[in-house]
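Dear colleagues,

I hope this message finds you well. In preparation for our joint manuscript, I am sending the Band 7 domain-containing protein (Arabis nemorensis) sequence together with its predicted structure, so that both groups work from identical material. I would be grateful if you could confirm receipt.
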Amino acid sequence: MDPQQRRTETARGPPVGETGGDVTSIFLSFGVFIAIAALVMFPSSLVHQVPEGHVGAYWRGGALLNIISEPGFHLKLPFITNYEPVQVTLQTDQVKDIPCGTKGGVMITFEKIEVVNRLRKDYVYDTLLNYGVNYDNTWIYDKIHHEINQFCSSHSLQQVYIDIFDQIDERMKEALQADCTRYAPGIEIISVRVTKPKIPESVRRNFEQMEEERTKVLIAIEKQRVAEKEAETKKIMAISEAEKNANVSMIMMQQKLTEKDSSRREADIENQMYLDRQKSLADADYYRVLKEAEANKLKLTPEFLELKFIDAIARNTKIFFGDKVPNMVLDQRLLGNFLNHSTKDKSKDENLEMATDA
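The corresponding structure tokens are as follows:
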């Protein structure tokens, strides 16, 4: 390109596209400068920290963003995006000094009611969109005032202060949870703790006197129960002692009966043994006599009788002389039997000799 053409292009200026690029670069550099300046001068407006147990909620131009950040460090546009940490763990809201009138027109005051609640993480956006960051003002603080007044107006002072005071916690929890489940399902009511309400001094003294009288009645009832228990205990002890004595007597009687039965069995055994022994002796004596009779029967031979006769005569120390001595000394029948037997023997011998000779 010659020098004349170069001078002409310089006089015309740079191209249109190149001029726009320079402007964008300038704005970008200016924005970076502003961001760096804001980071240096206001570091919290750009970098923020979400604590543990919370989530981050963001608003841009007053509109809630559908962005929920987890605990840790995060970035946001300074002066444009607003940030609020929202607790999603258990928290306790204390509602103090709640006045209410009972059914009878007595004004009492609940000093403190504690509500343990929790906002579920997946309902944070919907809850903040409908009720804002201070959602607990609507569904816990204001709701507690309303429910306590409703409860007191339908019950007497006696019921609120004494009779059903132990039921207030559960009733408040059920009432709060019912409305939260219907209108703000992200809010979970864990428990409600209600303190004893303040009542007028004159009424309190009456309650104290009533409680004192009731205590006296309870003491009297307890004394009566103790006396009844002591009497019942003595009765049980007496019955137990009588049963023990009866059992001991029964055991001793059973023991005596057992001893008598054992003695009877022992006597029966001894009698049976004696009977068996006497029977054995009688059988033995009978057998002896029987054998002796059989032996004597075998001995009754003429020779044996003659021998006995001779022995008897020989042992006689007296000798009689005269014609009638045989009648006195000798047994004629025995002698006759002996002679007959001798004659028969002689006849048998003679017949035997004759048979032998033939």
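For the figure legend, we might mention the following. Residues 1-20 have pLDDT under 50 and may be disordered. Residues 237 and 243 are 10 Å apart (CA to CA).

With kind regards,
E.M.
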